């Protein structure tokens, strides 16, 4: 399937997405090379979450192509009637592009360990004993090994988000997709999650990161994309994008203190 070391984990070409008559993505291209961190920034409503959710097929799109490790998503139908044609491919992509949400989305009726083990065991049918060993490893990595048997409600927001990151890691995905992972957290708890994200970037994990935190984007990204009203307004390496924005829109966005 056309996979080589330099095949991007995710490649998107000319993606269009509407909710009914509202066009939210108006022809977006994106490449996430293996081992790179690509950040998406832009005002609220610019389409960042939608783009992320289109990447792992949580949302349909009406036009354009999405490639996972060189493999094109297969579609059936057209326009608003276009959907992925191959359920197996959808599952494979979802489990390989694992998502960390703003609101953690842990199951409240499962312990932290059970949350982390859930998808590998039930969706991916992996051996529970091996998954448990991995799950404990990832909980250790994010610094909450001692919370394995706790319920989500017993954890702080920062600990819950680190559990959600361990859950994403336990699927051993090809890329991690973060949607504003720190924006539901108090400032002092944000830092413990930021430390984990930085460590993952240093390990060379492929990541797509939607964030309102320009310092984080500047620190961890190889490439930053500024979305404005569903289009890429400007993009580049963080060193130039943040210090020498070319467009008035990006200048305005950065000087308004983001959001
Ligand atoms: N499920 C939905 N139904 C209808 N409109 C939506 C839905 N989700 C998002 N939108 C709209 O799409 C646009 C982009 O939203 P979103 O991708 O969430 O932006 P961002 O993450 O950059 O804040 C907004 O105008 C939003 O209101
Ligand atoms: Mg969003």
Kindly summarize this structure in a few lines.
With 259 residues, the chain is α/β, with parallel strands linked by helices.
Description:
Helix 3 packs across helix 4 and helix 4 crosses helix 5. The relative contact order is 0.17. The protein has a single domain, classed as P-loop containing nucleotide triphosphate hydrolases (Rossmann fold), CATH 3.40.50.300. The mean pLDDT is 95. 37% of the residues lie in helices and 24% in strands. Strand 6 and strand 7 form a beta hairpin. The strands form three sheets. It has a six-stranded mixed beta sheet with strand order 8-9-10-3-11-12, sandwiched between helices. It has 259 residues and is an alpha/beta fold. The N and C termini lie far apart (40 Å). The radius of gyration is 18 Å and the shape is globular. It contains nine helices and twelve strands. The structure holds adenosine-5'-diphosphate and magnesium ion. The site of magnesium ion has 3 residues, from helix 1.
Major sheet strand order: 8-9-10-3-11-12
Please name the fourth-level CATH homologous superfamily: P-loop containing nucleotide triphosphate hydrolases
Characterize the largest beta sheet: strand count, sense, and whether it forms a barrel. 6 strands, mixed
Percent in strands: 15-25%
Mean pLDDT across all amino acids: 95
| Radius of gyration from the alpha-carbon trace, in angstroms | 18 Å
Bound molecules: adenosine-5'-diphosphate, magnesium ion
**Gross geometry:** globular
* Proportion of helical residues: 25-40%
* Count of all domains: 1
Per CATH, the architecture is 3-Layer(aba) Sandwich
Distance between the termini: 40 Å
Stretches with pLDDT under 50, minimum 5 residues: none
Count the beta strands.
12
Return the CATH topology: Rossmann fold
Counting H and I runs of at least 4 residues, what is the number of helices?
A: 9
Order of helix and strand elements from N to C terminus: EEEHEEEEHEHHHEHEHEEHH
CATH class: Alpha Beta
